[in-house]
Amino acid sequence: MIVIDTSVVIERSASLCFSIIARGYFEHVRRWRYSLQELKQLTEGDVKLGTQSQETETVAGRKVDRTVEVSEFDPDKVFTLKRVGGDGTETHYVSSYRFNPVSRYRCEVTHHLELDRSGLSFKLLGMFVRRSLRNELDMAVGRRVKATVEELTEPSGVMTASQKAMIRPATRGPSR
């Protein structure tokens, strides 16, 4: 199994970070997960515990289809997606974001990924897959998540969990 942890400090409050990354997941995730080819929300309404989606992603050059469900949703603290169902070669997938306030207007966002697939090629090439994923996650979380949150939100916004994020007009265009 591959386990990778990546962290970044974002110059926004935990509430703003959570609003963009978790509550706005379907609107914004393609800004930082370039490997995501397709994403479809299967349950209607706002993102919450139990929300499901179908996604297609390229992992180590191979197309992977998975159904994920929000398995943890604790506002301003944690947002976790976990693979559900038994189709495909991927046997385990967990993607979790933790929000740790550093100060009133700074938050450390830690992304935790767990990935396992059946098949000899994954077992033999696991070291290379891990290195490739590590590089992608360092770029995605360390730069693109930070840039997305800081670009889309006002720097000194103080929000409660029920408020929508203060979104700036997009300067780089819509999510792909």
Could you give a quick summary of the protein structure above?
26% of the residues lie in helices and 39% in strands. By secondary structure, it is of the alpha+beta class.
Could you explain the architecture of this structure?
There is one protein chain. The chain is an alpha+beta fold and 176 residues long. The protein has one domain (2-152): Alpha-D-Glucose-1,6-Bisphosphate, Chain A, domain 4, CATH 3.30.530.20. Helices cover 26% and strands 39% of the residues. The chain has four helices and seven strands. The protein has helices at residues 14-23, 25-28, 120-124, 126-152; strands at residues 2-10, 36-41, 52-59, 62-74, 78-84, 90-103, 106-117. Strands 1-7-6-5-4-3-2 form a seven-stranded antiparallel beta sheet, with helices on one face. Helix 1 packs across helix 4. The longest helix has 27 residues, at 126-152. The two termini are 30 Å apart. 27% of the residues are buried. The mean pLDDT is 82.
Total separate domains = 1
The main sheet comes to: 7 strands, antiparallel
Which range does the strand content fall in? Answer: 35-45%
Assign the CATH superfamily: START domain
What average pLDDT do the residues reach?
82
Radius of gyration: 16 Å
Structural class: alpha+beta
Q: Number of DSSP helices?
A: 4
Global outline: globular
Strand arrangement across the biggest beta sheet: 1-7-6-5-4-3-2
The overall strand count is 7
Annotated CATH topology: Alpha-D-Glucose-1,6-Bisphosphate, Chain A, domain 4
Considering DSSP H and I runs of 4 or more, what fraction of the residues is helical? 25-40%
N-to-C series of helices and strands: EHHEEEEEEHH
- The CATH class name reads Alpha Beta
